[in-house]
Amino acid sequence: MASPYIERILKARVYDVAIESPLDPAPRLSQRLGARVLLKREDLQPIFSFKLRGAYNKIAHLSEAVARRGVICASAGNHAQGVALAARRRGVPAMIVMPQTTPQIKVQAVIDLGSEAVLHGDDYDAAYERAAQLGRERNLAFVHPFDDPDVIAGQGTIGMEIARQSGGELDAIFVPVGGGGLVAGISVFIKYLYPRVRVIGVEPEDASAMYQSLQAGRRVILERVGIFADGVAVRRVGEETFAIARECVDEIILVSTDEICGAIQDVFEDTRSIVEPAGALAVAGIRKFVARDGGRDRRLVAVNSGANINFDRLRHVAERADLGGGREALLAVEIPEQPGSFLKFSQALGRRSVTEFNYRYESPARAQIFVAFALTQGRAEREEVVRELRESGYGVHDMTDNEVAKLHVRYMVGGHTRGIADEVLYRFEFPERPGALLDFLEAVGARWNVTLFHYRNHGSDYGRVLAGIQVPGAERAAFLEHLNALHFAYSEETGNPAYRMFLGP
């Protein structure tokens, strides 16, 4: 199998449209992992993805008669843009069938490249069936996104470049896996020249078609796939790509959504570029591999496959990156409902950097809070904090790996309460630094009972707190005098309609 593909890869026509992407060191990530990590920067391609290599190689090898009739493909993203660019370069018409749910920015990108965009169905499978039908009716050449020898050979030029740029002095190459075209092309070339170099595919836990197929010894069809890493959201891998993977891929590593988000942050910190979720899979795989097997100064390559991420997804990525990177923990803690309990708990937590503190009064006996804090030593530190808090008498539940808690409940702490009198609501700002929240609570003191508390570190210079406090009318003057002596910026929000509608007694 290897020899015909080696010739195809060596003769592949990709550099009319693609660049030889750099193999850049990742010094920060390397230092953290104790390994030498290199990033193959396919996110720097003209369409910000490796996909144009295979698409162009396929279209470039069409006969003149076939090419004149035009080409067609089904895609919701990077393959669509690759086909559109390749068709424009060769000067042939192209039709791209995309699901109706495709973001307008991707539809417009295809149109801007001169191709016809056809919207059909709610998912890729429906678009694929429509594209196949239109291709037969109009006698158009179908450009498959992964299960085609010319497409595989085009992606294989990445392996050829890695081999040349590294001299083969590598321990492993980590490759994102969707339908399998990229990992097939890279692995078949690398294993032919350097069989000792491990080629490791990386898939999301909720889109593990290649992993499950290799485990079963046959191609399996997933009932559903997660769409966070939409670039690899494939229900069934290709027939040809599966055959190559069985022979040439050493292992498939599965990673979670949080681990992908953490990898996006890792890439950003070393490159100042933001890759898409599928583009960060390889780095997430390296992190998991090193956690399992150790770095030991290994030389590891991650293929950053693309950077076509919708801007509105960055909020979710940023929210989950610290959890996925082992840099933040989320706990649910039960504390006594009495003045000074917040301060006592914060003292038990120590001067760790608290990133979120979420609480609403519910009953006069016990209170449940959500607290998130930064970690410097990962899981071991998290487990140590949980143990210390339990030894101090607190009921603690670790919510760091609880999807419902992370995605929903942490934002739903709150609501109206009954049986509480004299509550006032204030917003505070204070300089942000490690231990800042503890300093704030110590300054506010334990004289008045806290009934609502929300704090989230947004990475800015100032921490922002929303706090409800029981202050009897006769003590209002003393309370305000105390606030003014703290020199924190504050404003009263008791009359705010949002408070009255959703949080007030």
Question: Can you put this structure into words, describing what you see?
Answer:
- There is one protein chain.
- The protein folds into three domains: 2-49 and 149-315, 3-Layer(aba) Sandwich (Rossmann fold); 52-142, 3-Layer(aba) Sandwich (Rossmann fold); 326-502, 3-Layer(aba) Sandwich (Biosynthetic Threonine Deaminase, domain 3).
- Helices cover 42% and strands 21% of the residues.
- Helix 1 crosses helix 8 (149-166) and helix 12 (257-271) crosses helix 14 (314-324).
- Strand 4, helix 6 and strand 5 (116-119) form a beta-alpha-beta unit.
- The protein has an eight-stranded antiparallel β-sheet with strand order 14-11-13-12-16-17-15-18.
- It has helices spanning 2-10, 27-33, 51-60, 64-69, 78-90, 104-112, 124-138, 149-166, 181-193, 209-216, 239-248, 257-271, 281-293, 314-324, 341-349, 378-391, 403-407, 436-444, 476-486, 497-502, and strands at residues 23-25, 36-41, 71-74, 94-98, 116-119, 141-142, 172-176, 198-204, 251-255, 299-304, 328-336, 354-360, 366-374, 395-398, 423-431, 450-456, 462-470, 489-492.
- The termini are far apart.
- It is built from 20 helices and 18 strands.
- The model has no long low-confidence stretch (mean pLDDT 88).
